[in-house]
Amino acid sequence: MPCNETCQCHRYKPAPTPSSPPPPPPAVEYKAMQAVSAILNPETVAAVNGATAEKIEEDRLEKKVVLFQSLAANGTLGYDQVTFQPHDKLKKQGKGGVVGYYGNLKPIPSLKFGSTLASIVQDNFIHTYGVLENDGALWLLSPIYMPVTGAVTIWGIIAGCNDSSGNGYIFWQDLAKRKGIAMRDVSKVDGKTSTIGGTGDSLDQTSIAACNDSEYRYLAFQTVSQELEDDVVVSEKRTVRVVRFNGSEVDIDDIPGSDEIVRGQHTKIAMVHAVDASKGINRIYVYFTNVDGRLSRSYTDIVSGQKISFKTAVTTENSITVAKHANLSVVAAKGKNIIYTVKSVDSEISYSDDKWTYSK
User: Fold this and answer.
1) From which domain of life does this come (predicted)?
2) Which domains does the chain show, CATH number per domain?
């Protein structure tokens, strides 16, 4: 006898077959990323007003570099502190080495993959900023965790510096509004965001570097220009540019030879202000990589009342080659700049000296 809707076998409708859960997102391999940000520890940099030459030299030898970095274990923030001249050996990542969290508790404030770090000094404390993986937003990571309201980046590439008054600024590419590179005043909780002139033709996903002297701020990045024929791109030029600014005053200089060095590829950039009054040195140095990761350098002398004018870029004398997954950072010492990065033949961060050129 055929069954019907009132029989026992139709009293209960069968439960629907559950759909398969979505696959988990792929694990981020932070071994394939190395963010690094080097900065002088302000507690070890003595004021030199009225000090003797011997005291100044003594203080210089005691300066320490704080080296912030992404941890390969989980993408969180780690740090190491070393003296230089002579330079201490850098610690390796892991317990007992670079200070940081190596566990896997959830949630972990991991950095956005491929992002960079930026360190500045405010109120005699180092403030380090980064972009987190979970929201793509800019955060203060040290000395406390705190979001920077309204600052969201696409790629997480940032830079930072101070101004002559000690206020801190963070820069990132403002791709959403297609206005160029944005600058946020982070010295105030409600600091304003503005756009830097001369950055409207910045290359998408450009590396950014920033520094300052006693009067100006400096920003280095890549530009892109295209030659079209019948709306078809027939050639493209990518140049490393430096913008010097103070308020509404903007000075722009493209580094000679940089387009031939980068050859249409993205480059990694670092920049530092170098001073030695006894030798008459007052310069801005810019470092950037070629297609093979080999490091080139250019600089401009800072002369009061004159525009910046960068020298034709040349390869560094020690032929540093930067690993593809690594960023780089630089600080100035006496007579040389010290570059922190992962070299192509290494797996850990190391340092290299690049001596200043004293001839004009």
Assistant:
1) Eukaryota
2) 30-355 (2.120.10.70)
